Amino acid sequence: MISEKMYELGTKKSTIRTIFEYGRKRALEVGEENIYDYSLGNPNVPAPDFIKQAIIDILNEMDPCDVHGYTVAPGNPKVREILAKDINNRFGTHFTGKNLFITSGAAGAITIAFKALSEPNDEFITFAPYFPEYKCFVESVGATLKVVPAKIDDFQIQFDEFEKMITPNTKAIIINSPNNPSGVVYSEATIKQLAQILTDKSNEYGHPIFLISDEPYREIVYDGAFVPYIPNYYANSIVCYSYSKSFSLPGERIGYIVVPDEVADFDKVYGAVAGAARVLTHVNASSLFQLVVARCAGKPSNIAPYEENRNLLYNGLIEAGFKCVKPEGAFYLFPQSLEPDDYAFCKKAQEYDLLLVPGTDFGCPGHFRASYCIKRETIEKSLPIFKKLAQEYKNK
Amino acid sequence: MISEKMYELGTKKSTIRTIFEYGRKRALEVGEENIYDYSLGNPNVPAPDFIKQAIIDILNEMDPCDVHGYTVAPGNPKVREILAKDINNRFGTHFTGKNLFITSGAAGAITIAFKALSEPNDEFITFAPYFPEYKCFVESVGATLKVVPAKIDDFQIQFDEFEKMITPNTKAIIINSPNNPSGVVYSEATIKQLAQILTDKSNEYGHPIFLISDEPYREIVYDGAFVPYIPNYYANSIVCYSYSKSFSLPGERIGYIVVPDEVADFDKVYGAVAGAARVLTHVNASSLFQLVVARCAGKPSNIAPYEENRNLLYNGLIEAGFKCVKPEGAFYLFPQSLEPDDYAFCKKAQEYDLLLVPGTDFGCPGHFRASYCIKRETIEKSLPIFKKLAQEYKNK
Q1: Which of B64, B137, B279 sits opposite A136 (nearest CB)?
Q2: Quick check: A106 pLDDT over 90?
Q3: B278 touching A, CB under 8 A?
Q4: Do the beta carbons of residue A291 and residue A81 sit within 8 Å?
Q5: pLDDT tens-digit readout, A118-166
Q6: DSSP character at residue B336
Q7: Rounded Cα–Cα distance for residues A99 and A274 (Å)
């Protein structure tokens, strides 16, 4: 009577959602202040004042028909020019508006890229730990997602495993750096090696393998970490960006796809992006927020609160005896669980009202994700609890 | 290398777009004021002041994290409650927030409904003249669109032709009233007869046939015309709504789907809607505009300028000798072309700088669409030109 597949996708709760909802119920029993909810990746830094000011200025200065009217499908041409220049200023690229397609956030951008590229029997490859919605998005366009196991000592890439997975059916690789859930940034050496392998394999198979860079966390980096801009390292790159994190606008669904001129057969790829956006009905992202991000292009992200949280939680966990790769970006820690079964570990942590997400959900068992985009006081209060939890494991 | 199908969809220009772009070029040659562009259905009435005020109030009163944060996938629960109450007030229904799923405009709503419902070999049926994107949306979910020929005397429904087209594979019927391109509103008698046939056929085949009502023009009606609210006439209805026209917010992509409790297997249908929204990455429509439409729920649409334009253009065309069903809604006229070949007619009109869209593009040859959501002065200036064009045909 209906699509059973869609029903399943719409009703099967994710582990994250289940944990979060448990936390809401539990908070009613024991009080909000006694729940340490590290489950959701929802920015807790408010959108900067310049966003509010930009909205008000636009409403006061412009004709409402221009503010709220349809834009052309790829987005307001002036906005695309401004965003292209901003990218060029920062990364030394040479894009113009015609390289950009404005989308409803990064999720919209990624599904459009998948749909634009995929032909029957296509395979996409990503690297554990990875954002679990990739699998659902890739499968929804009729392709297959293959996952390279995690390199758990530093969460860079296991290149030998990766090379074994590439086949003539490999359409594209998806990377996400700074990474959700590990917080790790791929080093320049990693990107160079990745680009070399893809160049060699593309030559071997006689068709391009695309590199899709999903980078909503690009600006959320600490200690001056360098995040290589992918099109500067590999020609057949597609960048998927969102302002959800950098400007704390996750609910406004505003981002873009970059298709560089260097991509093999640019017109075909950009045309296919436009077609995919059309059938996914993602043409014309919010016209007001297109104008807002153009006015605010180049303005800084407020990362200080996240960096403080990272330091506090990372140092606290290390002190409590956890092992964790120190992340340079995003707002997640991805430590090893204190027993190999990460589900059992997270269940145990839940007894202490510490709400953590099992690494298995990100394709990386034996770990857990802690989202630290929460109140500093919650982290402070949780540190002795993490110690107690660790103590219980030591006493076993 | 890429999806050829997506490339085709993204690069093949629609007739409307081709005509519009011709108009832009032609305006550079002869001056904007000498082009009578009736091609686009873009609201020219600005968003009402209460929209601007609502945005500013929300920004001043609320925490930015609440304004711009993620909402749950079906949309802000409080917003859904308010919108449900507004619908109940107007149409005597009894919806709550759980019957609504907020979407990125009506296009998003329609594709979600199609994707949620369709199984392999499904057929959808609509009535000419119809919005041409339906075909593209239906085919993109792997189903087939069948089109019942137009009833050209009044643009209601040819029920005998319709009944012949229904098969056990018919999943849903799509109606659009007030209609794009005819402007006609389906009468209560039409809706009752449609509901009766669907009830009978559902019983005959032993499964429900859904009725999807695409109604972005619901509030754009004249002469006090009555637009029946479909769930009051047929249980298995799904309503797709958008604020694009009623509040002149086409660029903000804000609308909703209604799944009434009366729908067979409500939980399954609503669940499938959620799944389809997920893979089409339409979860969480703009969080700011969710709040805005909730604050403005029940406020009136400014239809006076459209009604004036309708009267001016309709009377002018009748006086010039055109035949046209007088429309009661939307902002389109759909008169007969002055020769059977509507493409040839629109080409001839173009020589007079009258930019009209051939009816064939809406599944209804021998007609043309004139979108009158344009400046009143343009219509005034164009009337003598329409007369000249009609005179040329008379002199033939």
Answers
A1: B279
A2: no
A3: yes
A4: no
A5: 999 999 999 999 999 999 999 989 999 999 999 999 999 999 999 999 9
A6: B
A7: 12
Taking alpha carbons only, the member of B371, B143, B367, B345 closest to residue B245 is B371
Which residues of A are less than 8 Å from B108 in CB distance?
A: 281
Give which of B2, B20, B110 to mutate to test A binding, by max A Cβ within 10 Å: B2
- The third-level CATH classification (topology) of the domain covering B4-47+303-395 is Aspartate Aminotransferase, domain 1 (3.90.1150)
Q: Are B354 and B389 in contact (CB under 8 A)?
A: yes
Query: Is the Cβ of A67 closer than 8 Å to some Cβ of chain B?
Result: yes
User: Which residues in chain B land under pLDDT 70?
Assistant: none
Maximum Cα–Cα distance across chain B: 69
Structure tokens at A354: 């510490």
| CA separation for the pair B23, B345 (Å, rounded) | 17
Alpha helices in B206-303 (DSSP H): 266-279, 287-295
The correct CATH number of A49-295 out of 3.20.20.210, 3.40.640.10, 1.10.1090.10, 3.30.1050.10 is 3.40.640.10
DSSP summary character for residue A221: B
Q: Both ends of chain A: CA-CA distance in Å?
A: 53
Residues of B in contact with A138 (CB under 8 A): none
Q: What is the residue whose two structure tokens read 């051939």? A: B358
CB of A226 less than 8 A from some CB of B: no
pLDDT digits (tens, 9 = 90+) for B105-123: 889 999 999 999 999 999 9
Look at A10 and B271 and tell me if their CB atoms are within 8 Å.
yes
Q: Which CATH architecture has domain A4-47+302-395?
A: Alpha-Beta Complex (3.90)
Q: Is A64 close to B52, i.e. CB distance below 8 A? A: yes
Q: Name the band, by pLDDT with cuts 50, 70 and 90, for residue A389.
A: very high
ipTM: 0.95
* Interface check A349 vs B, CB under 8 A: no
Q: Where is B172: in which H helix or E strand?
A: strand B170-175
Residue A364 per-residue DSSP state:
-
Closest CA to A266 of A239, A235, A240: A235
Q: What is the pLDDT of residues B37-69, one digit of tens each?
A: 999 888 999 999 999 999 999 999 999 999 999
Q: Is B127 helix (H, G, I), strand (E, B) or coil?
A: strand
> In terms of Cα–Cα distance, which of B373, B334, B362 is closest to B133?
B362
- Match 């005597």 to its residue by tokens: B92
Residue pair A97/A270 in contact by the 8 Å Cβ criterion: no
Q: Taking CB atoms and an 8 Å limit, are B281 and A104 in contact across chains?
A: yes
Residue B64 in tokens: 């930015």
Question: A2–B281: do the CB atoms touch at under 8 Å?
Answer: no
Q: Rg (Cα) of chain B, in Å, rounded?
A: 21
β-strands A144-148, A123-127 pairing? parallel
| Residues in chain A within 8 Å Cβ distance of B238 | none
Give the mutation candidate from B1, B4, B6, B59 for the A interface (greatest A CB count, under 10 A): B6
Chain B residues inside the 8 Å CB shell of A67: 47, 251
Cross-chain Cβ contact A43/B52 below 8 Å: no
Chain A interface includes B72 (CB < 8 A): no
User: What distance in Å separates the CA atoms of residue A344 and residue A106, rounded to the nearest whole number?
Assistant: 32
The DSSP symbol for A220 reads -
ω into A77 cis (within 30 of 0): no
Check if the beta carbon of residue A334 is closer than 8 Å to that of residue A181. yes
- Distance CA(B201)–CA(B218), nearest Å, equals 27
CA–CA separation, B161 and B163 (whole Å): 6
| Torsion angles phi and psi, residue B390, rounded to 5 | -65, -40
Domain range summary for chain B, segments of one domain joined by +: 4-47+303-395, 49-295
Does A143 contact chain B (CB < 8 Å)? no
Cβ distance of A2 and B208 shorter than 8 Å: no
